Amino acid sequence: QVQLVESGGGLVQAGGSLRLSCAASGSIFSINDMGWYRQAPGKQRELVATITGGGSTNYADSVKGRFTISGHNANNTVYLQMNSLKPEDTAVYYCHAGGHTVALISFGSWGQGTQVTVSP
Description:
Layout: E1 2-7, E2 10-13, E3 18-26, E4 28-39, E5 46-52, E6 57-59, E7 67-72, E8 77-82, E9 91-101, E10 106-110, E11 114-119
Parallel strand pairs: 2-11
Antiparallel strand pairs: 1-3, 3-8, 4-5, 4-9, 5-6, 7-8, 9-10, 9-11
């Protein structure tokens, strides 16, 4: 079983910054990729950014140039540095990890979510 624990959400004014963290723990053999998704009220969950074990990153167009994803291999922890935040970034942010357990069973796990609120 794999658990993801997120932290770092909160309330910030437009133009401000926040840093989210997500730590994976449990029966982990390997993690292929980790990422952040978000879900605003009344909307579907959407990809924000992902990072592979090799360090390749992928970003939603709406956050390119403002958000940076980092971490992963060293300690199964991923970070999301969010700068120049906009009110439309307000959402619950979820961490996701995909890989294999020590029993070599593939997994895809989600964190509990952390609220990010950006005021105008």
